[in-house]
Design goal:
The protein has 243 residues and is an all-alpha fold. Helices cover 81% and strands 0% of the residues. It contains 9 helices and no strands. It has helices spanning 2-17, 28-51, 56-102, 104-117, 122-132, 136-148, 158-181, 188-205, 213-242. Helix 2 (28-51) runs antiparallel to helix 3, helix 2 runs parallel beside helix 9 (213-242) and helix 8 (188-205) runs antiparallel to helix 9.
């Protein structure tokens, strides 16, 4: 009895603690990386222009233009990318659907062979394939997962991808512009707010990685700061040469 209770306790503990991270990142990863992209690119753009010793108005217009251009570019690129991927997947699903309709037995044997290759006994593999092939839609879903590695019922939406990319990029790109819109007349408040945003984005990214939040935050802060520093130096150099 003691052994049974111990094993039961261990089973409950394993069940309660056996969880995994979301390795795909869900919505969090693309949203954070979109905001990070907007923040780094617009901060670098603004510091590059500021390095050329231009007016405050020019820096603000540059930041707003960078926000709009980058957000629309991200949305258009994401929409095209996801739509193309979805169309390709749907075309492959149509091919598989036709094969299931024209050659059901061949597809059933193909599915059985897949299970056999994974270690299922041949007789059992054939029986499983036979039962799963009874419903054409279920058979299509299983073949799509086994052969193509996709879920026909969970295809990405181009519109959702475009809107989320637009919003996250615009939010990140707004941070370095915000201090100027609130009345700042020098560059350092914009840089400070952007650095805080970079650290925060990096820390949030740690939610979908195995790194600690402070390491991820400092790494992103260093990368974003380096980009801003390089563009500021280039802006100063070109500004002096042009002037």
């Amino acid at each position: 009895m003691a052994i049974i209770e111990t094993e039961a306790t261990l089973h409950v503990a394993h069940r309660d603690n056996h969880t995994h991270r979301d390795v795909n990142g869900g919505w969090l990863r693309p949203a954070v990386f979109g905001a990070m992209d907007g923040l780094v690119s617009n901060l670098a753009l603004m510091t590059g222009v500021a390095g050329g010793a231009v007016s405050q108005q020019t820096i603000v217009i540059t930041g707003l233009a960078g926000l709009a251009a980058g957000a629309f570019s991200m949305a258009a690129g994401e929409y095209t990318s996801v739509a193309s991927q979805r169309e390709l997947v749907e075309a492959e699903l149509d091919v598989e659907r036709r094969e299931l309709r024209k050659h059901p037995k061949d597809e059933e044997r193909e599915l059985a062979a897949l299970y056999e290759a994974r270690g299922v006994e041949p007789e059992l593999a054939r029986e499983v394939a036979r039962q799963l092939s009874r419903d054409p839609e279920q058979a299509l879903e299983i073949h799509a997962r086994e052969e193509l590695g996709i879920d026909p019922g969970d295809l990405p939406s181009p519109a959702v991808a475009a809107v989320s990319s637009f919003g996250s990029f615009a939010l990140g790109a707004l941070l370095p512009v915000l201090p100027y819109l609130l009345g700042a007349t020098v560059l350092w408040p914009a840089v400070l707010l952007a650095m805080i945003g970079l650290f925060a984005c990096g820390a949030v990214v740690a939610k979908v990685t195995a790194r600690s939040w402070w390491f991820s935050g400092l790494r992103q802060l260093a990368l974003g700061g380096a980009a801003a520093g390089v563009t500021y130096a280039l802006g100063s150099l070109f500004g002096a040469a042009v002037g």
